[in-house]
């Protein structure tokens, strides 16, 4: 059975793409068939996996807007045993083009349906906004959303807005939409604030916060410039250990053996 999770947070810089690619890489290391869907016009997930976004010939834009079969534009990273449905700057136009389309919120979900069964996990990386692309990502999240939350005060303020959006999508478009879990990122052991944020997030999402907390890490910040996930760039680092633990936690929660 394919599990489809969407990583979403309207606030930028919270470690959303970092979580998407590193969680995907470790799931692949645990012999899972994994597809990363880059739904962000900035194409950061595409770049982080070593693909030049300017040279993408077909990706999420063509799949959603031109009915190109997703299977024909998926790229396989043989080193990582990880598949990618890439993005490109062209996807920015989709926000405008989708406005007048019928069933505009269902485009991505319909596009991914033929892939169900071909992968164990599909992870969708959304843009840092709550526009139509993100709504498409939420509607496609068949098994729930994963919310990365930076351990800083302002990150808490955005949680309320995101929760409201999820509730609206649940009411109007996808009644089964749920929060699979919250990932705490950029935890700084030197500050009381990080600890306070952890406490507050646990109050807002009781029993939904992953135990694996991702620390601030220079290695995690460096890895994207090499087009590699942390599992390949610095497998012994604290960031790598955190994402490996997160992948195990996700697999265990899904009833898979690690």
Description:
The protein has one domain (3-253): Rossmann fold, CATH 3.40.50.300. With 258 residues, the chain is of the alpha/beta class. Helix content is 39%, strand content 14%. It starts with a strand and ends in a 5-residue tail after the last helix. The chain is globular and about 50 Å long. It has helices spanning 16-29, 44-48, 60-65, 94-97, 107-112, 132-139, 153-172, 192-204, 218-222, 230-233, 238-253; strands at 3-7, 34-38, 75-77, 82-85, 121-125, 145-150, 179-185. Strand 3 and strand 4 (82-85) form a beta hairpin. Helix 1 (16-29) crosses helix 11. The mean pLDDT is 92.
Compose a concise summary of this entry.
With 258 residues, this protein is of the alpha/beta class. It has one domain (3-253): Rossmann fold (3-Layer(aba) Sandwich), CATH 3.40.50.
Tags for this model:
single chain; alpha/beta; Rossmann fold; 11 helices; 14% strand
State the name of the first-level CATH class.
Answer: Alpha Beta
Give the CATH superfamily: P-loop containing nucleotide triphosphate hydrolases
Helical proportion, percent range: 25-40%
Number of domains: 1
- Work out the strand percent: 5-15%
- Counted by DSSP, the helix tally is 11
* Strand and helix order: EHEHHEEHHEHEHEHHHH
| Class inferred from helices and paired strands | alpha/beta
Query: What coarse outline follows from CA principal-axis ratios?
Result: globular
Q: Tell me the Rg in angstroms.
A: 17 Å
Named at the architecture level, the CATH assignment is: 3-Layer(aba) Sandwich
- Report how far apart the termini are: 17 Å
CATH fold call: Rossmann fold
Mean pLDDT: 92
In the sheet with the most strands, the strands line up as 3-4-2-5-1-6-7
Largest sheet: 7 strands, mixed
């Amino acid at each position: 059975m394919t599990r489809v999770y969407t990583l979403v947070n309207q606030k930028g810089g919270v470690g959303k793409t970092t979580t998407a690619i590193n969680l995907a890489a470790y799931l692949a290391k645990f012999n899972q068939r994994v597809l990363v869907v880059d739904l962000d016009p900035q194409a950061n997930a595409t770049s982080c996996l070593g693909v030049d976004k300017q040279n993408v010939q077909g990706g999420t834009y063509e799949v959603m807007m031109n009915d190109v079969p997703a299977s024909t534009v998926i790229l396989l990273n043989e080193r990582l045993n990880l598949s990618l449905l890439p993005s490109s700057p062209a996807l920015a136009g989709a926000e405008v083009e989708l406005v007048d389309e019928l069933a505009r919120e269902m485009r991505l979900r319909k596009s991914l349906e033929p892939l169900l069964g071909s992968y164990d996990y599909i992870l969708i990386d959304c843009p840092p906004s709550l526009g139509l692309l993100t709504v498409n990502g939420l509607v496609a999240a068949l098994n729930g959303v994963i919310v990365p939350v930076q351990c800083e005060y302002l990150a808490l303020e955005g949680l309320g807005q995101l929760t409201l959006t999820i509730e609206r999508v649940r009411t109007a478009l996808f009644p089964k939409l749920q929060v699979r879990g919250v990932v705490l990122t950029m935890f700084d052991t030197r500050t009381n604030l990080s600890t306070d944020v952890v406490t507050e997030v646990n109050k807002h999402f009781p029993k939904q916060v992953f135990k694996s907390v991702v620390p601030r890490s220079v290695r995690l910040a460096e890895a994207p410039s090499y087009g590699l996930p942390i599992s390949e760039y610095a497998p012994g680092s604290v960031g790598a250990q955190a994402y490996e633990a997160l992948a195990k936690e996700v697999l265990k929660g899904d009833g898979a053996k690690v």
